[in-house]
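Researcher: Quick sanity check before group meeting.
Model: Go ahead. Protein one:
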Amino acid sequence: MRRVDFDSASTTNVQAQVLKTYIDLLQKEYANSESLYDEGVAMHLKLEKARAAIASLLQVQAQEIIFTSGASESNSAAIKGVCFAQRDKKHILTTSIEHSSVRYAVAQMAEIFNYEVTYLSVSEKGVISLEEMKKSLREDTAIVSIMAVNNEVGSIQPIQEVGEYVKKHSHAYFHVDLTQAIGKVELDMKYIDLASMSAHKMNGLKGSGILVKKNHVPFVPLINGGEQEFGLRGGTANALVDLVLAKTLRLYLEEQKKKRPHIQALKERLVTGLRKLEGVWINSPSEGIANIVNFSYPKIPSEVMQNALNKKGFMVSAKSTCDSKSSEPSEVLMAMGLGRDRSLSSIRVSFHEENTLEEVDSFLKAYREVIQQYGSL
């Protein structure tokens, strides 16, 4: 049976050019980039060249790029690092639909370090209210953390407007989780102080990510060690993985720009088909990004539907993959006010550039068959 990957929001296949470059490097490069002999110096220079290339793509300075193991580490480091550097500020402002790496980091700051946390509500389209954000900002707010694009429903937050207001009307720092946004929405880094992203979401290697930390942002490192990453993240550099991240980002940005019309056509085909099925609710806002479509058939729980679709050859998710083992309803859909039944029966389809309209049609046929088989249970 041919398998169809409709779960790119969870992870992506490694781009062929990235994989080849990585394998070539593995076969001949092993020196520690902090060593002072010729091989170590050469590796260090390559690493800094990659850092500069990434900075240019993101329109920030090279010394503002910190290599990490992925977005979860970057998110946690951004929140804790900034808060620990401002001990007189004990308030965090975030949203009710963040990724678990932000949600748990913020909860830990509240439970162990006595921070107050304000969770911004969202509309039924999964978008925050700018007015609520403005009213919630306080003199002692250390950090505002808001994801640019939601990983479950694809809603897009007004990042530029939030950033502008935070800069002009507070002394807080603004962190943005860019994991699902890179290559899919246009973003101006001017008003963003810290940003997180993960290579494996953009056809790169797992265990590879970036934290953008602007030079003016105070920061206490969570991983202590040597002087790697400007003294902000200790430990021997995963140099080869970091090197290929520059190529990963460049190729992904180029590919996404070319493929946007195709991805939009896939979304429109799926949404049109779903609307013809009685009892199916579309949870993703029409204004959201093209590659994520979240929907529910309340009579069939997510796990039952996922297993049935898996047997028919389709790889899909329900919630964020980091929360996939939980039997609780989607916190995102509950926060959007869509109700427990829809939250317990959601399916997330997320497209990549190699998906086809024929695959969408096959999926709709399979989804209809599952409804017919299990819908009366």
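Researcher: Fine. The other one?
Model: Protein two, sequence then structure:
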Amino acid sequence: MTTEMGSQEPVQPVVGLALGSGSARGWAHIGVIQALDEIGVHPQVVAGTSIGALVGGAYVTGSLNAFADWVESLTVKDVFGLLDISFSGGMVKGEKLFSFFQNNHDNPEIETLDKKLVTVATDMASGREVWITKGRMLDAARASCALPGLFSPVKMQGRWMLDGGLVNPVPVSAARAMGADVVIAVNLNAQLVGAHLSRDTRSQAEGEESTAEERSIWQKMMDYFASGDGQDPGFFDVVASSINIMQDRITRSRMAGDPPEVTLVPMLEDFALMDFHRAKEAIAEGRALVKRYEADILAWVGSPIADRV
């Protein structure tokens, strides 16, 4: 649009979200997106890795609020009930969790969406970074969530896929490649967590009323996630801690080379790997982050006054 002086009004930039990996801390992504919406910032491009791919998928399909209601209702028992135990390629197949999502939320083809979505996975054979921009949303998210030692790898496009956090934990580069002018990144890797089930989580699981079969399953899971024998680290301690350290270093390197315009770091240092039942806390922190950085965000994207009145 041209004014009387002949100048043009500034064009609003394409806003992209880079939603990082971080297991249960990833519920903070929900609060970030909800709070952005409240200040009139509506990202048109979403790049997600691991849990960021799942939350990003819920957002671009218009299911985010319903998804938020569901995750906020989860108890420790619910979380364990959604995990299908398997010691082939990973402790959890992930079929129960993603089947539940598919039965309760939309799962369209990515190409049909109004917003752009790209999920990041890792080719197990070559170690290459794979950007998924086609096919069913849940398939793309599931391929990005195959955390070694926890979720089994997924075969997609004739290749076995591992968690995208192994190569690109906070996918700023993917968001830019999809057309984002301004990237808001959510980095969950700044605070490494030694425990994988917090003490409160273990206590809640042990105190839940359950059948003998359920108690047996829970005990197997708690043993797997336990922090060794008090002196020597357990198997999963070694695997998960190594992945956390690697992802933190990769995140620092990649974000230094291609920094986002805005970086949001949720303060969830007491969140353990499997604390998925603590969604309310994580979502609240995500919302609070946007409020704290609202001025910076609007300075980059331009104040969308029309959307806020």
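Researcher: One line on it for the slide.
Model: The first helix runs from residue 28 to 38.
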